[in-house]
Amino acid sequence: MNGLDPRQRTALRQQLENGLPLTARPWQTLAEQLGSSEAAVLEQARQWNDEGLFRRFGLVVHHRNLGFCANAMLVLDIPDHQVDAIGERLGRADGVNLCYQRPRRLPHWPFNLFCMVHGRERAAVQAYIAELLARHGLDQMPHRLLFSTRAFKQRGGRFTPSLPQETAHG
Question: Given CA atoms 88, 157, 75, 72 in this order, what sign does their dihedral have?
């Protein structure tokens, strides 16, 4: 039986979406914030993992702080009957950090496959993407290379609804 009540479970999900505390015992720190035990917090996390709630558990690296400032989104117009196979191939390629399909927005935006590549130098990223396209026979497909110019926000996804605020009576 789970040791966390529904409010604690929601609060734990919110805390995990913000990342583990940078302490020697992050699970203990989370438990203290929830008014629970480390064992109960770990039990809940294991249960969620067993249920498939987590696709992965990792960290968000602020790549710009590491010198990766030449970040490009490769957008391609791939025939619908080929997009799954090509997306899977590009998604497995070294150097492609993210690959996903989105609907076209015709007539102004014909692209339906998006691949993110991070690098330290713009010319190196351009060369890598040219080689990637040639290796996969895509160099003649309609595409654009969009380099980011400014980062406003970088974090993991947020899916847990906010807890209702406690109201003071007095």
Answer: negative
Question: What confidence score (pLDDT) does residue 119 get?
Answer: 94
- Residue 133 backbone zone (phi > 0: left; psi -120 to 50: alpha; other: beta): alpha
Burial of 160 (0-12, 13-18, 19+ CB in 10 A): middle
Location of structure tokens 């067993």: 50
d(CA 100, CA 93): 13
- Give me Rg for the CA atoms of the chain: 21
Q: Which residues lie below 8 Å from residue 27, measured CB to CB, with a gap of 6+? A: 20, 38, 41, 42, 45
**Ramachandran area for residue 108 (φ above 0: left; ψ -120 to 50: alpha; else beta):** alpha
pTM of the entire structure?
0.66
Tokens of 106: 């015709």
SS3 136: coil
